[in-house]
Design a protein that fits this description.
Elements (H helix, E strand, L loop, with lengths): L6 H25 L5 H6 L6 H28 L4 H29 L4 H8 L6 H33 L3 H47 L8 H8 L14 H11 L9 H9 L3 H33 L6 H5 L6 H9 L2 H39 L5 H29 L5 H25 L5 H20 L8 H7 L2 H18 L8
Helix pairs in contact: 1-7, 1-14, 3-7, 3-10, 3-11, 3-14, 3-16, 4-9, 4-10, 4-11, 5-6, 6-7, 6-14, 6-15, 6-16, 6-17, 7-11, 7-14, 7-15, 9-18, 11-13, 14-15, 16-17, 16-19, 17-19
Length: 504
């Protein structure tokens, strides 16, 4: 039986083949530079500012930026710029006030993982802190990676008409190949390429869209006609308590950059502090312009594809997450459509690869090597790390497929944020207090980590269900209150048990 493939599909597949071939080449080339465990997990601590900046941003944004934030812009309009505000503030604080201090301390301890840093900082005499931090990392990373694989399946389905499950499996296989062989070196080089694609692709699209605007009405007037809330910075209904809670929730997304391990491991791997000074402007510039472009693309989708009274989700997908795809296919010739498919996949894979390497380092170095089998050779650990990376990716794939089957109403925006917020709430309070408060103790760190972890679950699944006040917790989301609980727990326990070492 002959299966006809349209010329359009051939072009799309050809461009994707080039893109995937490049990733395979990076994986193969990087594998030749992996000589030891430090190379595999932190690239030998020899990254320059371009690699570091683009890798942090490519890792920090993911499918959430291209599909989630564009969708949010389509649904709520300019009030989505509160997310941009929060992210720029978060990235700026991380790079300007935290990165160099973290680099200096981790170099002093010769740390190559986040649990390594924490154990050395507190001069821990037990494995409690190391085990706990590695466990929390692995748990939320599996959720986060699952969300990214889910987005991969959705992208293949929307752009190529593939079966969702086939798309998810193909994406999983590609990213697994170059990570498994190339480790952290492959990750950062692929992040540089993928981050560049994300930035250029996002920033170019709004300018292209300007040439297709209706001249009868201004852009602003047209949006007002479609839905007046689209042009209100406060959202639907103007300034009120619910919208204020929503704005707080949007702005607080940026808090996740203040200590998230997948971001801060890049500061550990950078060559020196001078590179951080140069890289901070690249990272801030990237965040501001790419995030603004994403929101504007979503708003353009409302302008081009909806009218007053339209069901937004029926036209643009759940939470507007098909906005970017529709705008691309409307504005661009087919060759560039194929390129944008690669850009969306780049956003997803640049996060997946980083997360898998991070989780693998936690399990292999911090649990297997430092706790279970310290006698194993470091050379052998590279091979073990590859097996663990494969296993974690496979578990994440399985979870993403199960979620897709059991929860068809899920959205990429919030699925991604659960994993992202879980990692941040568990580690950001701990890392911030460790860097800036000399009286912070190991017991306080454990308390901050556990309470941040539990806080995400409580404020995500329990507090929004409380009658009367639940809507405010739903709008604020789980990150800010969970981090606050983490800070308070860390502070109180450190005060109650000052300088009392944990003994076996």
């Amino acid at each position: 039986m002959n299966i006809a493939i349209s010329p359009t599909m051939i072009i799309k597949l050809f461009i994707l083949a080039i893109y995937f071939g490049l990733l395979f080449f990076i994986g193969w080339k990087s594998s030749r530079k992996v000589n030891n465990i430090k190379d595999f997990f932190v690239g030998g601590k020899n990254l320059d500012f371009w690699l570091t900046a683009f890798s942090t941003r490519a890792t920090g944004e993911s499918a959430w930026l291209l599909l989630g934030l564009t969708g949010l812009g389509a649904v709520v309009g300019i009030s989505a710029f509160w997310v941009v505000f929060g992210e720029v503030i978060g990235v700026s604080i991380a790079w300007i006030f935290m990165a160099k201090k973290f680099k200096r301390i981790t170099d002093k301890y010769n740390s190559i993982t986040i649990p390594d840093f924490l154990v050395s900082h507190f001069n821990s005499k037990t494995n409690h802190l190391r085990f706990l931090s590695a466990l929390f990392l692995s748990f939320f990373i599996i959720i986060y990676v699952s969300a990214q694989i889910d987005a991969t399946g959705s992208a293949f389905e929307a752009f190529l008409g593939w079966n969702y499950f086939l798309g998810a499996i193909v994406g999983y296989g590609i990213v697994l190949f170059y990570i498994t062989f190339g480790g952290f070196i492959a990750v950062v080089w692929s992040d540089l390429i993928q981050g560049s694609l994300m930035f250029l692709g996002l920033c170019a699209l709004p300018f292209i869209g300007l040439f297709f605007l209706n001249e009868e009405l201004t852009f602003w007037q047209s949006l007002t006609h479609i839905d007046p809330s689209l042009v209100s910075i406060w959202g639907l209904g103007g300034f009120n308590s619910v919208n204020l809670a929503t704005i707080v929730g949007y702005s607080c997304i940026g808090l996740a950059f203040l200590g998230s391990p997948q971001i801060f491991v890049r500061f550990m791997a950078v060559k020196n502090k001078a590179e951080i000074d140069k890289g901070k402007w690249v990272a801030i510039f990237f965040t501001f312009f790419s995030d603004c472009a994403a929101v504007f693309i979503g708003i353009m989708a409302r302008y081009f594809f909806t009218e007053a009274g339209y069901d937004v989700e029926e036209t643009l997908g759940k939470n507007g997450q098909n906005s970017l795809i529709l705008v691309i296919e409307f504005l661009l010739p087919i060759v560039f459509v194929g390129l944008y498919i690669a850009i969306i996949l780049a956003a997803i894979m640049s996060t997946v690869d980083s997360l898998l390497v991070l989780a693998s380092s936690a399990l292999v170095l911090d649990i297997y090597y430092k706790i279970l089998k310290p006698s194993v050779s470091l050379k052998k650990l590279v091979g073990i790390s590859r097996v663990v990376t494969f296993t974690l990716a496979s578990i994440s794939l399985l979870i993403s497929l199960l979620v897709a089957i059991s929860t068809p109403e899920r959205t990429i925006f919030w699925f991604v944020l659960v994993g992202f917020h879980g990692i941040a709430a568990s580690f950001c309070p701990t890392i911030i207090l460790a860097l800036f408060w000399k009286d912070f103790t190991e017991r306080g760190a454990i308390a901050a980590m556990i309470s941040g972890f539990l806080g995400v679950l409580v404020f995500k699944f329990i507090m929004p269900r409380i009658e009367g006040i639940g809507i405010y917790f739903d709008k604020i989301a789980e990150l800010a209150p969970a981090m606050l609980i983490g800070f308070l727990s860390g502070y109180l326990v450190s005060r109650l048990f000052p300088n009392i070492p944990i003994t076996k």
